[in-house]
Design goal:
6 strands; two-stranded antiparallel sheet; Chitinase A, domain 3; alpha+beta
Length: 274
Amino acid sequence: MKNTLFLFIILISISGCFNKTEPSKVIATIGPKVYSVDDINERISTLDPQLQEFFVKKENKVRLLEQIVEEEIIYQLAKKERLQRSKDFKEKMEELKRQALINFFIQEKVEELSNISKEEVETYYNSNSNQFDAYETRDLSHILVQTEQEAKNILTRLKKGDTFEALAEKHSIDPSKAQGGKLGWVRSSQLVEAFSEAAFILTKRDPISPIVQTQFGFHIIKFNDSKTMPKQSLDSVFDSIRNELVAEKKRSRFKTIIENGRESFNPVINIENL
């Protein structure tokens, strides 16, 4: 399937190539159409490195050539029957042209105008330094139940020696029950306030919390471990910041284009007729 996809991609870009060429370079002649080894190699050279690597082996080039021949035969048969003059074909071409124009407009007005400079990344990093400071992360587990009485019963069972994991699997209504209540490594900012406050004062000497109520129900939290993550340098987060800023700029530009377009064309929408 992967190889078929590669061949399909290359066929799109290679179809229609025709050059007068030296006989020693001709690799296929189909009716009036001539393909040279230079035609194929030139197209392959424009592909991503992963795709180029696929065509290093001659056997894959041979398979590609076979596909090109089949495509050219179908193309010439279609022209011979003058299908390009049919109403259905012309309508399809108009739809393809319409979609291509939409894509080209987005490329020109959004994609190519949404670059982010090094200075913009640095400004974001410096203005949001708290996001990249060192922080504590904790490995936590919890049991979530619907009533306070259920939570009290579970605390009693824990004091009598029942394991936290077994009680979580049996009584918790949270999906984490499948892992014995384990939430994994989390930051304080990722948790609702009441849960966070209770979880981040637990210690290895006193790892089980009292009952904690949140909008989700009643929790009993278990502290498993903690570690401090170091401050992230600008270099280490540069790409992720840039990618997020680019995405945000694209969203903003696209939104502005649509808003201006609505003002210009004043679309009328009749949802009741859907």
